[in-house]
Design brief:
The protein has 2 domains: about 40 residues, no CATH class; about 70 residues, GMP Synthetase, Chain A, domain 3. The chain contains 5 helices and 4 strands. Strand 1 and strand 2 form a beta hairpin.
Length: about 130
């Protein structure tokens, strides 16, 4: 694989050595282990004991657990990324497609959330750029 020189130079400028590995094939793993051992030995030789190492804590945010609905005026706004992708890429003027999307509402849990939000026949629903009557 070829990497742009400018990206590699950014690592070099930051004082970081770039190593490429493939866990699947095992390429570069021995070099990585040797470099890690070299760095650990260097820390021990410099008397790294007692120095506080600053740790960086990563706290990944959970994915959306499901669809959500809020009401904006008289319209129920559905936030469901998978449904938004579906309605954005299909022709919603086709009755067959609208029936398929209706089935997806149940499969994705959107119908249940809308019912809990108090939707009634005749109410407007919007998901992405598409709006329809319930």
């Amino acid at each position: 694989m070829i990497y742009p020189r400018c990206r590699l130079n950014a690592f070099k400028d930051a004082g970081t050595r770039v190593l490429f590995i493939s866990a699947a094939r095992g390429d570069g793993v021995s070099e990585l282990m040797a470099e890690a051992m070299k760095m650990l030995t260097q820390v021990d030789a410099e008397g790294g004991e007692g120095k506080k190492i600053q740790k960086r804590v990563f706290r990944p945010q959970p994915k959306d657990v499901g669809p959500s609905v809020h009401k904006d005026g008289d319209t129920f706004i559905v936030k469901a990324p998978e449904l938004e992708r579906i309605v954005a890429r299909v022709d919603m003027t086709s009755p067959e497609v609208r029936q398929q999307v209706q089935r997806q509402l149940g499969r994705l849990g959107v119908q249940k959330v809308l019912e809990k939000a108090g939707i009634k026949p005749g109410d407007k629903v919007r998901c992405g750029d598409y709006e329809w009557e319930w």
